[in-house]
Amino acid sequence: MAEFFQLMLKPFAACLMLTGIHAYLGLHVIEREVIFVDLALAQVAAFGATLGFLWGFGLHSTASYLIALGFTLVGAAIFAATRLRKPVVPQEAFIGIVYAVAAAASILVLSRAPEGGEELKALLVGHLLFVDWPEILKTALLYSLIGLVHWLARRPLLAISQNPERAFARGVKVRWWDFLFYATFGFVVTSSVEMAGVLVVFSFLIVPAVCGVLLGRAISQRLLVGWATGALTSIAGVAASYVWDLPTGATVVCAFGGCLILCGLLRLISR
User: Fold this and answer.
1) What was the pLDDT predicted at 200?
2) What is the pLDDT of residues 116-138, one digit of tens each?
3) Contact between residue 198 and residue 103 where contact means Cβ atoms under 8 Å apart
């Protein structure tokens, strides 16, 4: 048992770190009703990483990370520019288009690279079970800085997420604040995708936030529920994948699905 906890300490720490930032950002995403923005930005980051791989950089190298980050910031600018006061086309449509194009482009790029299928699989599910301390500490520092930025800018960001029409009416520079939100979001997603993969990152972002909405009313309640469900579920998923020798990413995603079902049942019982 002691050996198990020693081996799982690093993945468990990574799960807590990912839950901390993603559960908070997920509440913004749900309030904004742009559910698939994380999946789209994650796929854009993955496309940048695949380009770096095709150009000869390692999939987890600094150069590949910077290329992925650059593409993610472009995606952030697109999403900020398409936020209109009275949109002709729902913003979710643009998000879906960006996701589809980035996913298709990633497949095209990897089709020209040796071992492209294996690299695509790595981008989808990550290497959460084999993460090391330097990567955890580097990512935790980045997330802490982004958390500080969001704390300092919490009033306009929450106002835009919860009531964008009133923010427009008050003269708030919505697009600039949106770019700040999506740019910081892009930093988080780029780092998270490198560690956990596209599918797992999406689950970390959406499922704890949805659980918070189901079981809490105030923002603080929803955030606490999101942190609790995200941490417990991800740790349980990683542990199950190790014990039963299952693919880590797929196991964690399925664990999040089970958690969401449980939270839905708890809401029905409480009502």
Assistant:
1) 87
2) 556 566 666 667 878 889 989 99
3) no
> DSSP for 36-62?
THHHHHHHHHHHHHHHHHHTT--TTSH
In sequence order, the 6+-apart residues with CB closer than 8 A to the CB of 166 are: 159
Residue 216 CB burial class (10 angstroms; 0-12, 13-18, ≥19): middle
Q: For the purposes of burial, counting CB atoms within 10 Å of the CB of 27, is it exposed (0-12), middle (13-18) or buried (19 or more)?
A: buried
Residue that the structure tokens 């708890």 belong to? 266
The neighbour count for residue 28, using CB atoms within 10 Å, is 20
Q: Are 59 and 120 in contact (CB under 8 A)?
A: no
Distance, in Å, from the CA atom of 200 to the CA atom of 177, rounded to the nearest integer, reads: 27
- Domains annotated for the chain, with CATH where assigned, are 2-265 (1.10.3470.10)
Average pLDDT over residues 89-99: 83
Q: pTM (2 decimals)?
A: 0.85
Give pLDDT, residue 223. 93
Contacts of 184 (CB under 8 A, 6+ apart): 146, 149, 150
Percent residues over pLDDT 70 in the chain: 91
